[in-house]
Amino acid sequence: MTEVKKQFPKGFLWGGATAANQVEGAYDLDGKGLSTADMVKFIPKEERTQDHALDVSKAEIEAIIAGKVDARFPKREGVDFYHHYKEDIALFAEMGFKTFRLSLNWARIFPNGDDKEPNEKGLEFYDKVFDELLKYDIEPLVTLSHYETPLNLTLKYNGWADRRVIGFFTNYAETVFKRYKNKVKYWLTFNEINVISLSAYTGGGVLLEDAKNPLEVSYQAAHHQFVASALATKLAHEIIPGAQVGCMLARMATYPATNNPDDILKAQYENQQNLFFTDVHARGEYPSFMNRFFQENDIQIVKEIGDDEILKAHTVDFISFSYYMSLSATASPEGDRSAGNLMGGVKNEYLESSDWGWQIDPKGLRWTLNDLYSRYELPLFIVENGLGAYDKVEEDGKIHDDYRIEYLRKHIEQMKEAIADGVDLIGYTSWGPIDLVSASTSEMSKRYGFIYVDQDDWGKGTLERSRKDSFFWYKKVIETNGEDLD
């Protein structure tokens, strides 16, 4: 009889995750081109009409380029990882990181996206970052595209809506695979690929204001990303010995709000729409339930001959995902709403909420892990999970973030339970190990890190790094491979 153990496997990949546009800064240094993220301005909370501010119109972009917009663009600044990477990686090493998830800024390597030759200065920067990580035996986990498309591709081709962008992306992927083949083993193609259906500009550099059927354009762009991801997976396997390539989903696990069969069907529908993206990556084909969705929304996906064969032949090695909360769905138009990671739901009376209204559901992570593993039977990797909260710096300079420790502890406990359930979980990178610019709101006050960065929502501060209480707690968690969570 097999012994069931409630513990993390040897070699489990503990670490943290960031995105280039949220940490790097240096948006106009060393030959870097503009990206879509560089156009996202900061809107103070009291002026926002929704809980996120991501999309940018073509008119706004043109006005920004012409210098007619008086605003801050926090993702141009990040937290200056570009000049602080050695200091930051040393702090990650002090915590004992086994892996660090970061993204490459495509426009730092190919400033216009469709350039014939890469920008050597950009390639050199990531060489230095990888060398610094490997100095401390920290395994890089690299995302090729994390909410960042070279702006030229948006203005010239309308981003991923144009099939030609597949070739520009695979050229970029081949370039970095060849350059870093001896330094990087773990790769992700597109961050939270399903977000292209919620914010086409964020997920694919696509402008929808002139589209007759915006949903059709978004899903066509998603198809182009599926093909590009499969081709990149093929290239990685050919170029890098032992390469492991994963997809990445913003997992929006959805419960029915009640036992009403209509709510149950609504929740099933929401989960299917979410998991459609991993179905294509992991199974290599479009699931049949999407046929009705496409028909009812007048969507016709244009495929070229050979696309289906490419998707089938080059599926991913593992599935990675973000998990911050669960959602609840109802067929009723009434009910209190909850906020969420780009998408909200009906409030769940059994759950508490974060400072930003995201409902906290550690047991939902166990449910999610079991659900994904039973569906795909592929290794799983949690590459984003964390608590965005207001942090207070005490007079002695300390930050007592017990709320963050409690959030992470409860989620890690449920990861253990899922492993005991039989789930093959290979790693965990908490979101934002160092404070960074929020993806959804461009705020600094929404802090996730174990490491505090002295910078406010208006870009003021010394950028000095300091350790929060959670820094020392997470160090102990890694040292004991998840055994000591007190």
TrEMBL record:
The active site is at E384. The keyword Transit peptide does not apply. One of its GO terms (biological process) is carbohydrate catabolic process. GO terms for cellular component: cytosol. Keywords: Glycosidase, Hydrolase. NCBIfam families: PRK09593.1, PRK09852.1. Belongs to the glycosyl hydrolase 1 family. It comes from the Bacteria. Its EC number is 3.2.1.21. This is Glycosyl hydrolase, family 1. GO terms for molecular function: beta-glucosidase activity. InterPro entries: GH, GH_1_N_CS, Glyco_hydro_1, Glyco_hydro_1_AS.
